[in-house]
Design a protein that fits this description.
This protein is α+β, with helices and mostly antiparallel strands and 686 residues long. Helices cover 33% and strands 20% of the residues. Among the domains are: 143 residues; 100 residues, Golgi alpha-mannosidase II (Immunoglobulin-like, Sandwich), CATH 2.60.40; 163 residues, no CATH class. Strands 15, 16, 17, 20, 21, 24, 27 and 28 form an eight-stranded mixed beta sheet that branches. A seven-stranded antiparallel beta sheet has the order 2-7-8-9-14-11-12. Strand 15 and strand 16 form a beta hairpin. The protein is globular, with a radius of gyration of 24 Å.
């Protein structure tokens, strides 16, 4: 035992050391002086491909809204970004920011042809000044998104025209006066351009690019000071002091701006090397969790930051932008808490706000979501349609922007390291093909049903034996994990990063076991959430879907529809917990993972073959059987579940059998339960 613990300690030190030395990856372009060397190096688009259930999830996206939206939604059909007379601001670039990685990750020729139909007009729109895009757009903000699109397209295709457009536009930024007003989106989001700038510097090594980034940093909103002071805490939300407008101050309380901005001090840290900016990132994340934290690692914002009660909503745009920010920050800092959050968002909050067939989405999701209807709720500033699953409930920005979530998560599963190795930054069924050591190309096939199961098997394919370090992130919740390879077994500590510095040959295997024990998380009003691995579990509520007609056109194209979902069973249960033996009374039932990984019994699924919806009759991949007691006093308030009662009064001392399913599978759900101590009820626990 002492020997395995020592090995774990040594490998953790090795990882930290490799990130801080002067070693430079020979195969991939990392930061070079004067920039701070990053912990990890993101691999080019297409290096990581999904397998197993994760590939099915992305295929559902390709067969759903992402693969068809520009066939019928007028804002994309007529987009000025593709040469049409229509919308010329952010919606085209937002859509492409998900379509491009999806097309090339899946290697889907139909999707790639769609990409070309968009990219060619964009490339040909470039002017001598460096400006590009629709003639009628004069705002820098959508170009910040378009630049990220062109980066991904260039990495996938090596089309030098894309690199030229990016470089010339950044030269335009460098040569033009600062135009980053705090009262405009382009101002509060100005440092989004730094994502492109640092990528471009790694590609070209031209110093003027860093001058342009410094100008943006110094002439745009000061998010670093914002995180140090953080004016919009839970007290400000409770006392309704939050500015609910789109003026200069209100933009700083906007949830999507916050989800984007959390990476901005971290981006600047690469150039400034000042620990203040690193500290601002982690301080900001802690403050989001403390004051606005929700299940699934998200923070609230039913348009503006709104506190941590489980009836608060979170905008889907904020989920996918927070995921992108965390991926960028993990590459910079290599801190495993960032990857833990990234996984939690991807495996809970993202699927929880999109239908299993990916034909409809919500604007706002709730932790305790027992009614999905077009009724007024106590949102900070959103409308009554905000939690409908539909085409464009409340506002259409998320319809354009939601597509980046899954594909970019896949790209972040694996990264390169400065010492010519690889790191498994997040886990999911996948294959990574990359160069290691002095340039040997290898593949690692990761076979797993994670996050539903805890076993991961990695198999190395290589044409020649090669020595390189392979790093594995151990999640912060994963106590008593084991890693077996080359007849060795180690037991790393939770939250560690272990490095396996070996000479690997074709067919070598690494087996990882993460324990999937039940654990609890204290939430609002002393309620609890149930976790197993990276997944939150929610009360399974019988449900009825109803197609509704709202005051906008859902265009009735294939699976495009607007759903209300109403409960057919009770939802107001307290969870029976034995404090002396917390795992007692929870029975784990595992079921096959279907082609719709986050579907559960009773969901509506679109069939392209029949052109109709049908009722899904299979279980979610994991169903936990537990015990609950109905709490009559716990009722609806403002068409949402009221806050969980702290000391519930129970009239029935005989607990009922209840079932829990993954949060992402529960379109109606209770995820923050009042606690009923086992000593209060008749002992029927197993």
């Amino acid at each position: 035992m002492k020997k395995t613990c020592l090995l774990s300690l040594i490998t953790v030190i090795l990882f930290s050391f490799s990130c801080s030395t002067d070693m430079e990856n020979k195969n991939y372009k990392g930061n070079i002086p004067p920039l701070q060397k990053n912990a990890c190096i993101k691999l080019p688009l297409g290096s990581v491909r999904p397998e197993g259930w994760l590939k099915d999830q992305l295929s559902a996206q390709a067969n759903g809204l992402t693969g068809h939206l520009d066939d019928f939604w007028p804002d994309l059909v007529n987009s000025a970004w593709r040469g049409g007379p229509g919308e010329s601001w952010e919606r085209g670039p937002y859509y492409l920011d998900g379509l491009v990685p999806l097309a090339y990750i899946l290697d889907d020729e139909n999707l790639k042809e769609k990409v070309r139909e968009w990219i060619e007009p964009i490339l040909s729109s470039a002017t001598d000044s460096g400006w590009y895009g629709p003639e009628k757009n004069t705002d820098r903000w959508p170009l910040a998104v378009a630049n990220k699109v062109l980066i991904q397209y260039y990495e996938a295709t090596s089309d030098n025209r894309a690199l030229d457009v990016i470089k010339n536009y950044f030269r335009y930024i460098h040569n033009s006066p600062p135009d980053w007003p705090d009262s405009e989106w382009r101002g509060v989001r100005a440092m989004e351009n730094a994502v492109t700038g640092y990528w471009l510097y790694r590609e070209t090594k031209e110093e003027w690019i860093l001058e342009a980034i410094e100008s943006i940093q110094k002439n745009s909103f000061d998010w670093t000071s914002y995180y140090e002071i953080f004016p919009w805490d839970s007290t400000a939300a409770a006392e309704k002091r939050m500015p609910l407008d789109w003026d200069e101050t209100g933009l700083t309380a906007h949830v999507v701006n916050n989800a984007m901005a959390i990476k901005y001090p971290g981006l600047w840290y690469q150039q400034s090397k000042d620990e203040r900016y690193k500290q601002a990132v982690f301080s900001g994340i802690d403050k989001y969790d403390l004051h606005h934290g929700q299940t699934g690692a998200r923070f609230s914002g039913d348009e503006h930051l709104s506190g941590n009660s489980p009836d608060r909503g979170t905008e889907l745009c904020a989920v996918v932008e927070y995921m992108f920010s965390l991926g960028e920050l993990y590459a910079i800092f290599g801190d495993n808490s960032l990857a833990d959050k990234l996984e939690s968002l991807a495996y809970n909050a993202l699927p929880g706000t999109i239908t299993a067939d990916i034909w409809a989405h919500q604007y706002d999701q709730q932790s305790n979501q027992v009614l999905v209807t077009a009724d007024e709720r106590a949102w900070t500033s959103n409308g009554e349609y905000s939690n409908i699953y539909g085409l464009m409930p409340n506002f259409a920005c998320c319809l354009a922007n939601m597509h980046q979530g899954w594909p970019k998560f896949v790209t972040n599963l694996w990264m390169a390291t400065n010492d010519n190795g690889l790191i498994a930054a997040a886990y999911g069924p996948s294959t990574v093909k990359a160069k290691v050591a002095g340039g040997v190309e290898i593949s690692i096939h990761e076979k797993t049903e994670y996050p539903f199961r805890g076993e991961i098997k990695m198999t190395i394919s290589t044409s020649e034996s090669v020595r390189f370090p392979l790093y594995l992130r151990i999640p912060g919740w994963a106590n008593e994990s084991s890693v077996t390879y080359k007849e060795k077994t180690i037991n790393p500590e939770a939250g560690a990063t272990i490095g396996l510095d070996e000479k690997w040959k074709d067919g070598d295997e690494i087996t990882i076991h993460f324990p999937m024990d039940i654990r609890f998380e204290r939430r609002y009003n002393n309620s609890v959430s149930v976790l197993r691995g990276p997944l939150y579990y929610s009360l399974r509520i019988d449900k009825e879907y109803k197609n509704v007609k709202l005051d906008y056109d859902n265009f009735s194209y294939m699976g495009s529809i607007d759903w209300e979902i109403r409960p057919l069973s009770q939802w107001n249960y307290g969870l029976v917990v034995d404090n002396s033996n917390p795992s007692r009374g929870f029975e784990i039932n595992e079921y096959p993972i279907t082609r719709y990984p986050f579907a559960d019994k009773g969901d509506m699924i679109w069939s392209a073959d029949s052109g109709k919806y049908f009722i899904w009759d299979q279980n979610a991949p994991v169903v936990i059987v537990s015990r609950g007691v109905e709490i009559p006093e716990w009722k609806l308030k403002n068409n949402s579940a009221d806050i969980p009662p702290t000391n519930p009064v129970i009239n029935n001392y005989y607990p009922e059998v209840i079932e829990l399913v993954p949060y992402g599978s529960a379109k109606l759900r209770i995820s923050e339960f009042p606690v009923i101590e086992a000593s209060q009820v008749i002992d029927v626990l197993r």
